[in-house]
Each structure stands twice: as C-alpha cells, then as structure tokens.
Amino acid sequence: MRQVREIYRANSRHWVGDGFWVQPLFSHMGEDRGTDPFLMLDYAAPYNFAPNERRHPRGVGQHPHKGFETVTIAYHGEVAHRDSAGGGGVIKEGDVQWMTAGAGIIHEEFHSEAFSQSGGLFEMVQLWVNLPAKDKNVPAHYQHLAKENIPVVALADDAGHVRLIAGEYAGVAGAARTYTEMNVWDGVLKAGHEAVLAVPESHTLSLVVLRGRVRFNGKEEAAAGQLVGFEHSGGEVQLAAVGDEEVKFLLLSGVPIAEPVVGYGPFVMNSAEEIHQAINDFNSGRFGQIA
User: Fold this and answer.
1) Which has the closest alpha carbon to 119: 242, 19, 245?
2) Per-residue pLDDT of the chain in tens (291 residues, 90 and over written 9)
3) CB-based contacts of 149: which residues, under 8 Å, 6+ apart?
4) How far apart are CA 112 and CA 204, in angstroms?
5) For residue 66, what is the DSSP state?
6) How far apart are CA 44 and CA 227, in angstroms?
7) Smaller CB count within 10 Å for the chain: N or C?
8) Is the pTM of this model over 0.85?
C-alpha cells in the first residue's frame, strides 16, 4: 500500500477577480508538497451567487500566462473563456478546459451570460500543470473537454466511478492530451463503500477531498477541503467512505518533471533569465491579443 505522508488543510479563502472565491491547496510559490508535475491548485468550494444585475459579468479580465498549462474543472456554474490563441467558449457543468499557455497567451474568464442572469451554486477547480523545459515554448493552444467526451469508468463492486480527465485507468484512456505522463481522475465513492486505486510507482500522488469524509488504508481520515499527500513509493491506496455521505475526490498523479521551477506571477519557467524574457515577450506584444 502507498502510505499517507501528510494531510494538509486548505488555506484561507480569497477572491480571484470578483467571480472566484478560492481556497489554495498547494502552490509552487509556497511549501513543496510533493505534487510535481502539478504546480498549483485553487478550489472554488460551493458558493451561491445571486443573479448579477450589473452591466459587466463577474470574473477575471485579460491576463497573461507562459510556461505551463491551466486546467479548469467545472462542477457547478458556468465560465465563459476567450484567449489570444483563438480559443473560446463556455465551460459548462461537467466540462473541463485544458489550456496550454506554452510560449505565451492572454486570456479572460467570466461567469457565462446564462449563469450571470440566473445565479446559483458555483464550484470549480483550477489546476496549474507544469511543462518540461523542452515544451515551455510550444505554441499556445486550447482543449475543450466536454462532459460527454470524458470517459467514466465504474469502480469494482459498484462502489462508485472515476471520470478520466487525463491519464489511464483500467485500460481506458483519459480525454486530455498531455505533455508528460499523468493522471487526473475525478471520482465518486458511494456512502458505505470502499475501493482500491492504483497508480504507477513512478508517480507522485495527491488526492483532494471535495465532499464527504474518507479513510485511507484503514487508518488516516481526511474531510472536504483537504489535500492528502502520499509517499512516493508503493502502488495501491484503499479508500473507504466514512459516514452516510458519498465522497467526491480529485486524484492527481504523475511522473515528476524534476526540473528547476522559477515562478513570477503568471509565468513559470526554469530560470530567472527566462522569467525576464517572458516579461519582455508580454510587454512587447508577443502573446497576441484577444480578438
């Protein structure tokens, strides 16, 4: 069994723009929580927005990224996205947006027009995924992973299921194309059930509890809003739902890139010199414009 290394509580919430009230669970700019190749995760836990009667939607205006990928997973609510590489559209409930910033991109994210008018429950995850040095300057591009195109695989004994956003489970390939080997699984474990999940021994492993309470390997327990970090050895992990509530979780595993990480705001490169170049590229207009 792969053992739990540490269970982390979420940091205090803060607003990103005026549309995303998030809890940071890990970041490349803070304590190293052994999540390589994943850089950062912000969890917008369930929050009810009133209908927006203002002229402008809530969200985050135009801003740049370079050197990594952003992954937005929509659980409740909708976000409208536009970027300087020509990507755009509405991320609806169950959809995932996988945006490769690569050599540089500018994008914006706002509550969709329909969600702004209706209001309601909003819940999302934004994950930053690192790119290896050889791919940090690939042309920016965008993958829209619609809910109906994300494979769902049942767990043994009708214990629940996993949605394969990226990677592979039980011989089924995930929806996203990735630059390095990783798994991003969106899972549900039914109340009163347990399951055994296995990832390759070469992977780091972290699990975010989004709902319910879960016991690992018959010992440690974690609750909603907590990050569970595992030792980088062994394979299988046993999960058991505690109490009468189903468990929702996000599993992240991957082969570490194991390269220097130098971050500055929206840029993540391998050296300070590359950060200066990223700033110059952005200021010189090389990231393009949103049409």
Assistant:
1) 19
2) 999 999 998 788 999 999 999 999 999 999 999 999 999 999 999 999 999 988 889 999 999 999 999 999 999 999 999 999 999 899 999 999 999 999 999 999 999 999 999 999 999 999 999 999 999 999 999 999 999 999 999 999 999 999 999 999 999 999 999 999 999 999 999 999 999 999 999 999 999 999 999 999 999 999 999 999 999 987 799 999 999 999 999 999 999 999 999 999 999 999 999 999 999 999 999 999 998
3) 175
4) 35
5) B
6) 14
7) C
8) yes
Residue 19: C-alpha distances to residues 50, 60, 75, 123, 138 (Å): 11, 7, 15, 11, 30
Contacts of 60 (CB under 8 A, 6+ apart): 16, 17, 19, 20, 108, 109, 110
Cα separations in angstroms, 203 against 45, 88, 165, 229, 236: 27, 32, 17, 12, 12
Q: Which residue has the tokens 């082969």?
A: 255
Q: Containing H/E element for 275? A: helix 272-283
